[in-house]
Amino acid sequence: MFLMVRIKVQKRRGYTFPVPVWVVNEFLTALTDLVWIGEMALKRIPLPKDERSRQQMSWVKTVSPSGIITGTQMVIKDLCKYKGLDIVDVKTADVQVKISLK
Predict the structure, then answer these.
(1) Which of 48, 55, 66, 89 can pair with 35 through a Cys bridge, CB separation 3.0 to 4.6 Å?
(2) Which branch of life, at top level (predicted)?
C-alpha cells in the first residue's frame, strides 16, 4: 500500500512521490515517542506568571500531542482498507496537490 503524493505547479512539470504506508506508520511511531518525552519534560516546568505565556503553556499541558499523533496513526490504518481513495485533492490557481491510496 502506497500514499501517492502528486504535486503540480502551473507551467512546470509535476512530480509524484510514492510513500509506503509502513514508512508513515514507523515515522509516526517514532514521533509519538519523541513527543511523549517532550510532554513529560513540559509537565515539570511550572506555569509562568505572564498571562499570555500561561495560556500557551496550559494548552500544551492539557492537550496530549502524542495522543493526537496516535489518533492520526489509527486513522491512516483505517483508511488503508480503501484502496484508490483520494485523501487530499487541493487545487489553487498555481498549485495542485493530490494524495491518494494505491
Answers:
(1) 66
(2) Bacteria
